[in-house]
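Dear colleagues,

As part of the handover before I leave the project, I'm documenting each prediction I ran so the next person doesn't have to rerun anything. This entry is a single chain, and its sequence is reproduced below.
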Amino acid sequence: SLTGSIKLFVKLPQLTSLILHKTSVDGDVGIFENNTIMRVLDLGYTKVKGDVACFRACDSLRRIDLSETRVKGIAKAFCATKDLVLLNLGKCASIEGNVTDYQWPSKLGTLELGCCEKITGKLISLKSMRTLTKVAFNDTRVSGSLIQLEDKPNVKELYMSNLEIRGNIKSLAKMKRVVSLYLDGTDVTGDICVFENCDSLKRLVLSESRVFGDIGQICKLISLEIMILGRTSVTGVWSS
């Protein structure tokens, strides 16, 4: 595996894309402070550290993945990056912030903050975001109602496991192209028939929620690869 310090990349001032995902590089992300050229930065699952505040003025960033690294700081640091389409800070234990009043970049399609236990706030922060295709807030301290997600027809992946969220799953009725849906360990309710026309659905995890209905309503979803409905009120017999 590739090793060494990322500080060496300061010698490449014209570098616009750096992808070192799942390598063993280390160093401080502070070397990218005020970098106005970098467009793609993927350091996910590496040993890098540092405060994400250094990215506040990185105006050209479009995609940044720092998942499962040792970076720290306030997630809001990325809100000023107007062209950002992907932000992945998943499994970063020292990332924090209350997302309730965040104004995320208008072009953001992928927002991953899953397993960041210091992230708090309300789902209402997502209400005005029209470009979302993937959202991961699972295992954070975010709470709220599914109604904040009712106008998100482009969402293909939704990870909201183990959150204090409520509401009826019919609020997700417009997500016809959803592929992965995780609402296990929540207080959501509603009839699973809302998903009967979601032909792209591959992963449906609703265990330990308050959903109900006849499993026959979704037995025609031939794309399903994972379905976990334990400790729900779903009944019936699966038939082909």
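The chain has two domains: 1-89, 99-239. The radius of gyration is 19 Å.

All the best with the project,
I.
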